[in-house]
Amino acid sequence: MSSANASKIQHAVFYLSGISGLEDIHVWISIPFCLMYLTSILGNSLILFIIKTDPSLHEPMYIFLSMLAITDLGLSLSTMPTTLGIFWFNSRKISHDACFVQMFFIHLLTLIESAVLLSMAFDRFVAICNPLRYESILTSSRIAKMGLLSLLRGVALILPLPILLKWHQYCHDKVLSHSYCLHQEFMKMMACSDIRVNIVYGFFVTLASEVLDFLLILLSYIMILKSVLSITSHEGCLKALNTSISHICIVLLFYTPETGLSLIYRFVNISSPLVKTVMGYVYLLVPPLMNPILYSMKMKPIRARIIRVFIN
């Protein structure tokens, strides 16, 4: 191979990072990560299996839950190869194209999950505030359209990101802070290019997706709370709120680390790379891990079906 070709290949790669300062024990650190990925994949697969095989669970609430499980499976599978590759084999190199593809799927699935959480909030709003019209509003065709719209919105917003990134030269340090590729990471390596379009478009994507979804979820729960407080029966009030607790927990679990990571990249200058690394792992690994656990604990039909699966 000529020196020119070798140099070209060398410049066409990024370098992923594990946990800075703990490289000597990456093999040991891989054990909890393996358990997290395994639990996430098995938990979400089990939720999908239960909902698919039990006709009594073919209701809007459980269909949205299956959409969430599919999205969480995608998030786990999109980060698992590079993360475990670093911890097991110290495989840090990743080509530009492979990195952009991984970034596309990570951000696409994140936007879809945000849209699914909004759909689930709408489901709870209709069930509590307008129960008599629940079945007529949330029909199978309407749910399918909501899912398709979530996918199309995600693709339309995220597809320009890798296209914009391919236009730039990366003249600075090509070491990423995470074991996977995120859009925010590329900004520090593009100082030799005009990145204003990337910054503005990235901010627009955040506003048009997660921020908008969160505000609509917040609005739906304000209206739900207003409706619940009008219930004269204390027992009825608690029963209505109990149906939404698991969804509220998952919303907080999804948006809190995602918001924290965005604020760190945009507004907070933190010298320690460990903070970004930990926040990145919490942002992408914890929700897919905890979502099936929370729903199996809080939803009696899911819990009962899981018990029957393992007993029988």
TrEMBL record:
Stated name of the protein: Olfactory receptor
Family: Belongs to the G-protein coupled receptor 1 family.
Subcellular location: Cell membrane; Membrane
Alphabetical list of InterPro entries matching this protein: GPCR_Rhodpsn, GPCR_Rhodpsn_7TM, Olfact_rcpt, OR51/52/56-like
The entry's keywords: Cell membrane, G-protein coupled receptor, Membrane, Olfaction, Receptor, Sensory transduction, Transducer, Transmembrane, Transmembrane helix
GO annotations of cellular component type: plasma membrane
Protein's GO biological process: cellular response to lipid
CDD domains attached to this UniProt entry: 7tmA_OR51-like
PROSITE patterns from the UniProt entry: G_PROTEIN_RECEP_F1_1, G_PROTEIN_RECEP_F1_2
Keyword Cell membrane in record: yes
Residue ranges annotated for the G-protein coupled receptors family 1 profile domain, each copy included: 43-295
Membrane topology of the entry: Multi-pass membrane protein
Main location: membrane
GO molecular function, one term: G protein-coupled receptor activity
Superkingdom in the source lineage: Eukaryota
Record-annotated membrane-spanning stretches: 25-51, 63-88, 100-122, 143-165, 199-224, 275-295
